[in-house]
Structures are given as C-alpha cells and as structure tokens.
Amino acid sequence: MKSDFSKGFEDLFVPIDEDTEYIPLLADDEDEAMGKMNVPDVLPILPLRNTVLFPGVVIPITVGRDKSVKLIQDVYKKNKILGAVSQLDANVEDPKMGDIYHVGTVAHILKILEMPDGSTSVIIQGKKRFKVEDLLTDKPYHVARISPLEDTVEEPREEANAVAATLKDLAIKIIKLSSNIPAEATFAVKNIESPSFLINFLASNSELNMEEKQKLLEMNNVVKRGLYLLEHLSKEVQMLELKSDIQSKVKTDLDQQQREFLLHQQMKTIQDELGGNPMDQEIAEYKQKAKKKKWSEEVAKDFTRELDKLQRLNPATGEYSVQVNYIQTMLELPWNEFTKDNFNLNRATRILEKDHFGLEKVKDRILEHLAVLKLKGDMKSPILCLVGPPGVGKTSLGKSVAEALGRKYIRMSLGGLHDEAEIRGHRKTYIGAMPGRIVQNLKKAKSSNPVFVLDEIDKIGRDAHGDPASALLEVLDPEQNSTFHDNFLEIDYDLSRVMFIATANTTSGIHPALLDRMEIINVSGYIVEEKIEIAKRHLIPKQLENHGLTRQQVTFPKKSIEKIVEDYTRESGVRQLDNQIAKTLRVRAKQLAFNEEVDRKIAVDKLEEILGKPRYTKEKYQDNHFAGVVTGLAWTASGGEILYVETSLSKGEGKLTLTGNLGDVMKESAVIALEFLKSHPDIIGVDPALFSRWNIHIHVPEGAIPKDGPSAGITMVTSIASAFTQRKVRRQIAMTGEITLRGKVLPVGGIKEKILASRRAGITTIVISEENRRDVEEIKEIYRKGLNFTYVQDIFGVLDRALLKEKVDKAIAIN
After folding, report:
1. Angle at which helices 158-177 and 5-12 cross, to 10°
2. Mind listing the pLDDT tens digit for each residue in 522-557?
3. Looking at the annotation, which residues are catalytic?
4. Phi/psi of residue 131, nearest 5 degrees
5. How far apart are CA 566 and CA 368, in angstroms?
6. In degrees rounded to 5, what are phi and psi of residue 568?
7. pLDDT score, position 524
8. Which residues contact 140 (CB under 8 A, 6 or more apart)?
9. DSSP assignment string, 567-614
C-alpha cells in the first residue's frame, strides 16, 4: 500500500478496466447506504500487511499468500464481501488470532487483476467497520464471528462539518505545496461532501504510520477522529512550508552570490581600465590619516596590524565592513588630543556667576581645580557628583564648567541604562558591533579632556546583560581610568584628563563602590528670594526669546514672580517655575497676536486669570488648635516639606494604631516614642495606668504618599505627650530628630532642605539635635534669616520647649 499523500492521490486515478476511467469517489447517498448495510455475522478474514483499510476508501492490494488467494477466489464467486484486518507485524507469514488487530473494515472486491509477473492484485473498497469477536476456523483461511461498529456524531452536527471543512482546506494546501500530487486531486477533495468519508479518505492517504491509522479506525466518534487527523495534517503543512521556504532561500542565496560575483568581476575590469582600485585608494587614505595621529607607538602598531588585516579581506564578506568600522573608529578618536585650558580665574568666576545663581560649593571646587592646574600644569581631573533635588541646575552646571575651562562639553544620560555594553561596547567579532557610549562621545567631542556629564547616575538599572554601575567603576576611578578598556577597541584609552561630573537626586540608588570613587557635593534647593533672582536673570529672558517677545512687550514685577513661586510651584528647584513663566508668556503672546489691548506688566491680580486658581497653599503653617497635633520636618527627593503628626486617644486597653502610609522605620519610631513615655510617665505628670486604659492612634496626613525615616521620632513623642497631658504645642514651632529608648535626640540629615521648608511654611522656631548645630552653622545666614533654633540633647528638653504649661480650655478627663 502506498502510504504518503502523493502516492495516495496517484492511486485515486488508477484505471479499473477498459470501460471505467477512474475509481469512483464515494457519493453522499452511498455513504448513507454503507451506514445501513447489513453485515453478515460471519466473515472470511483477510490479513493486510502495512496498510489499513478505511470505510469508503478504494485501495489496490497484492495477494501472495496461498490462503489469501484462496479466500479472494471463493469470495469473488459469491457475494464479494470479506473482512480486511491489519496485521500487528507484517513479517508474520501465517498470522493467528493474536497477530491481527481486532477492529477491521468490511471490504467489497471491485476487481481482480492477474499481473504479468504471475501475482494477483485486487482492488477493494471499504464499507463498514467491525470488531472481531471470535475466530471460528483458520482453514482453508480465517473465518471469524464479527459485530459491526457504528460511527457516532454528537449533535449538533455543525462541529463535525467545521472539522471536515478545516481538513479539506489543509488537504488542498498540501496538494498545492507538493509537486508530486496532480492538480486534479484538488477537485476530487473539494467534491467530497461526507465528513466521515473525507476523514477516512485523508487518513488513508496521509503519512500516518500503521499504529496511528489503526487508532483512527478504532475511534467511533467522527469529530474526535477528525481532530486527531487535523493535528497531524497541520504538522505536515508546516513541514511542507518549511521545505518550500528553505528551497526558496537557497535559490535566492545562490542567485545573489552569482550576481555579486559577476558584478565584482565587472567592477574590477572597469577599475583596471580607469587605472585605479577604490579599495587601494581607501587604504592609502587611512595611512595618510594615521600619520597625523598623536597616538602612542603601541597604538600605532595595533593600527598597522589591523590595516594589514583589512587589505587581506574580500570586500564582499561581512567581516570586511566590521574591520572598516574598527579602522575608522581608531582614526576618529582624539588620541592624546587636548583642548587648552583657560586659566583666567576671573573669567571663569564671571561665567559661573552669570549662568548660575548660588551653588557656591560647586563653583568653589571648580575654581580650586583651575587654580591647581594653573600652578602645577597637569593633574588628574576630579570626579564630582552633584546631589540634589530636581530643577536646581545640576545638569546645566556642566555646560557652564566646560565654558569656564574652555573645554568641550559632553552629556550622557544614564537613566534606565541596563546593559553593560552601553559603557564598554561590544566585541568587534559581532556584526554591527560598536564601541561604548564613553568612546563614542569622545569621538564626537574630538578631544580627550572634555567636561563629561553623567546625568542621573542614581537611576542606572541592571539585568541579565550585566551591571552598568560596575562597568562605571573603572571609568570613575582616577587610579584606573588612565587605562580604560573598551571591548570594541581592545586597546586601553586614557580617560584621566576627562573631567567627569555626575548628577543624582539621591545617593541611596548609587552603588556603594561607585559612590566611594566620587566627590559628593550637595546641591540644595533655593529660597524664595533666590528663585526670584533666578527668574529675573535667567528664566524670563530665556522664555522671552523662546516666545518671540521683548521686555518692551512683557515685564514681570517682583511681586508677580513671588506669587508664582509661592502659589503655583512647590519644589526645591525652578523647573515648575520655568513652566509657569512659559505658560504666562504663551497667554500674553496669544493676546498680542490677536491685537488685544493688554497691560505691559503681568500684574499680581491677573495671574489667577492666566494660570488659574493657586495650586499650593498646604505648606503654610496651620495653627495647632488641638492637643496632640505637632508639626514635623521631612526630607524628600524634591526638597524639604513640613508634615503633621496627630495623636488621638480612645477608651480601650492601650492598643497602638499607626496610619498614614508609614514605613517600617517610622513605625519603629512611634513604638519607641510610646515605650519611652510609658517608662517615664513622671516627665509629663500622668498616671502610668493611663497607658493601659486608653488606645492610642497616631496618624500622619496625606496617606497616599509613602513616608519613612527616623527623623519624626521627637515629633511623635511630643504628639503623644500632648495628647495625654492635653497641653497644646507652642505656635509656629517645628521639630526634627531621631530618638532612642534612653530619650537621647540623635542628629538627622537634609537640614538645609528642612530649613527652607520651614521658611516657606512660616515656621519661626525649629527644635533640633545639638549634634546638628554644625550643619546649621554651615548654612548661609540668608537661609536662616527669621528662624530661631533650639538645640536639645534629650527628649526632656524637647517637651520643655514645645509644650505649653496650661491645658486646653475643654480638657477631657483622662483618668
């Protein structure tokens, strides 16, 4: 039996005799007749080798065994009906009951053909499935008692029809993809209407093995039989499509290679006629450029070796383009090429003052470096890291430093960087390889001593491709970066003369080893007066130019700028302020474009009409009318803020409840505060038993914002003490500090930001740890103006300074 699709379809068109052209396919009425066919209880059994007969399918078989020949001759003389059952093992010559499957197909003999070689071929058609119940005799051939098997199709029949339609589509696709199947087969498949016959026909002609075909024959459910066959045909279609794609690609590749070969031969002939080879000219050009480079002898040797390698390569290969890219990168890099530093310190001071207001520490550090360079003539550049809230001018400062030094300026954003190859580059063995961004930027700058700003260094990511922060360790180490190794270059490059300036909002996200290699300079936020000056000197002139306006058309009075700062922005920097000024000028530009009559000045009373209702009023100090409410100071990435700690008491068993989206450290501070007061009730003058009769609820407003850190410790102690004693907190007082179980007040950070937040909110007195005194004294007087500082060593001093002596008017009876 022919087993694959092409052979199966070839069998479909084998002539039966001279009067019949093709073996007829099964019609719907014949399918129905087969279903109602009366099958005898006893049938002669014909064992089949290497094939399975399905109902409705016509197949030719060769009969060779004496028993089989005898069976065919006897049956053909009678009703031409026999039972065809497949053998388990085709090599068994005289199969017994245990050597055949127990499910077979009732077959009708259509034709017996005597072949020229003496063998007998029989064309049979399957009619109905049956099961062998018992073998009655095996002489002169097998005769068995059988029982018919019926096909089942679950209602509704739409699923069976859908499966048949899908099978039909797949079969047609296979016919189109296969070059061995005649086109007429498509017509034959399309005209099969019966789902069960379509499944049987396709199964018989598919490439399923014997065991799988027998499994299909034994399935009673037509839909399950179809789904099983569908899975196999889908794989066959995929295999044929893959073969077709491979053949197409191979043909395309061969055609392309032949075409390129012919074109190269033609080009070579033309070049010889013109008297020059572009490849040789290109090599000569590279050698000429190499003579002008200031690289070391070692680099020159490497370049010569790589250039010789390029000359040996065929321009048609992929490696040639990689090698050309490498040679060009080497030639474009500024080996030992430096810009001359401008040592005019007065000029550098003017530039730094002109471009940025404040930032004295940064400016002083740059001037110190310039002074040492002027005296010594050469030194390794410092690696600075400017840490501060957004919008204070960290990034733009790099450009001013470059201008002050007379150097080239490079800015590289590290935010979201997660691949080490971005820093070190890819190895040149890969197609499309390129150097890392450090080397690429130096190539653009055409100088080996630029000011290189590494922006957002605290936002570097990491993944399976490596850790970029670890790659930066070599870049930012003055002891190592003189021999920086880029994977693409594979030659050490000197970065020691590059002045790296990193920027970050916080040091918490920076790798500790990386942090250790940099000189940290904290860039704090601006007070209102400074923001007004920055707006007048920088922001307003810039936005006027951006919007095509002049000072004759628009002016901002100081009061208007102050109102924008206080009511429409809430930040340590000036980015929001810049946006609000831009919005104001857009509105004014629109009015002028429509020829409206407008006042030249942006008056304070007009701001609400332009910018809308004031957005921020929350930071203003709210008087503590109730006992248990205390004002604290907090540090955030965007600057300092004030926060309120509220404590309320309710009858209960001394349970402590904390709300306000507090972090673990802040929750621990609340527990420490309560435990301290429980162990020292005498300092607030209450009965120790009160703590076990009242539940305590501590809440920090703005629950949507996460809060954490130890600096609210003394604020929580004061809040609980105020609630139990019913003594209010003094007006316009705020506090910050960590506490211990012994009652000690420890220092905290972010002092300048907290001082600025206090000024914005109208606070006049700040309670702070004695150990923070040096931090306060380092801050300029202009920032501390109008503030009184109370330095304390323990909680006793805090409560003595913060709580009023008298209780509230309607004090609750706590007993």
Report:
1. 100
2. 887 777 778 888 888 888 998 999 988 888 888 888
3. 711, 754
4. -120, 135
5. 36
6. -120, 0
7. 76
8. 67, 70, 71
9. HH---SSSHHHHHHHHHHHHHHHHHHHTT----SB--HHHHHHHH-S-
Residue 112 phi/psi, 5° resolution?
-115, 130
Q: With contact defined as beta carbons under 8 Å apart, do 696 and 735 qualify?
A: no
CA–CA separation, 660 and 653 (whole Å): 22
Q: Which residues contact 270 (CB under 8 A, 6 or more apart)?
A: none
CA atoms of 738 and 505, how far apart (whole Å): 23
CA distances (Å), origin 343, targets 451, 499, 658: 15, 15, 59
CA 76 to chain centre: 74
Sheet holding 656-659, edge to edge: 656-659, 694-699, 639-651, 629-636, 733-735, 765-769, 788-792
Sign of CA dihedral 12, 15, 17, 19: positive
How far is 617 from 538, CA to CA, in rounded Å? 26
Q: Are 405 and 338 in contact (CB under 8 A)?
A: no
Residue 41 has a CB neighbour count (10 Å cut-off) of 11
Cβ 381 vs Cβ 369: under 8 Å: yes
Question: Which tokens is 384 given?
Answer: 């600075």
Average pLDDT over residues 175-195: 73
**Cβ-contact 633, 757 below 8 angstroms:** yes
Residue 722 in contact with residue 628, Cβ under 8 Å? yes
Q: How far apart are CA 75 and CA 803, in angstroms?
A: 118
Tokens 């004030």 sit on residue: 642
Residue type, position 8, single letter: G
Backbone angles phi, psi at 452, to 5 degrees: -110, 110
The H or E element spanning position 11 is helix 5-12
CB neighbour list of residue 701: distance below 8 Å, 6 or more residues apart: 643, 644, 646, 660
**Cα(592)–Cα(601) distance, rounded to whole angstroms?**
13
**Amino acid identity at 620:** K
Percent of the chain surpassing pLDDT 70 = 88
What is the pLDDT at residue 19?
35
What is the b/e burial string over 288-303, where b = at least 16 CB atoms within 10 angstroms of the residue's CB? eebeebebeeebeebb
Burial of 693 (0-12, 13-18, 19+ CB in 10 A): middle
CB atoms < 10 A from the CB of 525, how many? 26
> What's the token pair of residue 84?
């065809």
Tokens of 736: 């910050």
Residues recorded for the chain: 815
